[in-house]
Amino acid sequence: MWVFGYGSLIWKIDFPIHRQVVGYIKGYQRRFWQGSTDHRGIPGKPGRVVTLIKSKNPEEQVWGVAYQIAPENVESVRAHLDHREKGGYTSVEEVFHPDDDTPDPFPLTIYMATETNTNYLGPAPITDIAQQIVNSVGPSGKNTEYLLNLAEAVRKISPHVHDSHLFELEAEVIKLCEEFIES
């Protein structure tokens, strides 16, 4: 079993892995369009976390990390991830393109939220999303921590890639936090 980390699974791996490979999937965009009422927000005041949205460009890439799960851990890791991603995520199969000496792309499981789940918030102006992130806290901590850790992790695993939505949102959140400190 292989699982794709494109959000907190890049920087918060809380299950046993056999191997990890940096790379990408095609035909998607990473967007902060999923509400979080169980980790980075609360019911009535959701935070925002990432999901994958189908891109109009089939060659568009989302970079992340593929984690191989050893056969003896597949059942327990799947149960763990099903629970961890319970807030509106479903699993789908996609093709992963490794950025190493692995000869061929391979299939893996992706947990992604769809527009039909109750926590889906959809698109909004970057300034509105940033404001929501700055003001959201949940059982797993501040929503700003999620965003800033993700931006740092993406830069670390794929420094040659510019994720405009992620990095513009990061800049806006930093600006809002600095304005708050100054006031």
Distinct helical segment count: 5
Q: CATH topology, which one? A: Hypothetical upf0131 protein ytfp
Distance between the termini: 50 Å
CATH C-level: Alpha Beta
Q: What name goes with the CATH superfamily? A: Gamma-glutamyl cyclotransferase-like
**In percent terms, what proportion of residues is strand?**
25-35%
Arrangement of strands in the largest sheet: 1-5-2-6-7
Uncertain stretches: none
Q: Specify the helix fraction band.
A: 25-40%
The major β-sheet equals: 5 strands, antiparallel
| N-to-C SSE string, H for helix and E for strand | EHEEEEHEEHEEHH
Radius of gyration (Å): 16 Å
Q: For the residues shown, what is the average pLDDT?
A: 94
Total number of distinct structural domains: 1
What spatial form do the alpha-carbon principal axes imply?
globular
CATH architecture: Roll
Structural class: alpha+beta
Instruction: Count every beta strand, where a strand is a DSSP E run of 2 or more residues.
Output: 9
Task: Describe the structure in your own words.
With 183 residues, this protein is of the alpha+beta class. The chain has a single domain (2-182), classed as Gamma-glutamyl cyclotransferase-like (Hypothetical upf0131 protein ytfp, Roll). The protein contains five helices and nine strands. The protein has helices at residues 8-11, 74-84, 126-134, 143-157, 164-182, and strands at residues 2-5, 19-26, 28-36, 47-54, 61-68, 89-98, 106-113, 137-138, 141-142. The radius of gyration is 16 Å and the shape is globular. The model has no long low-confidence stretch (mean pLDDT 94).
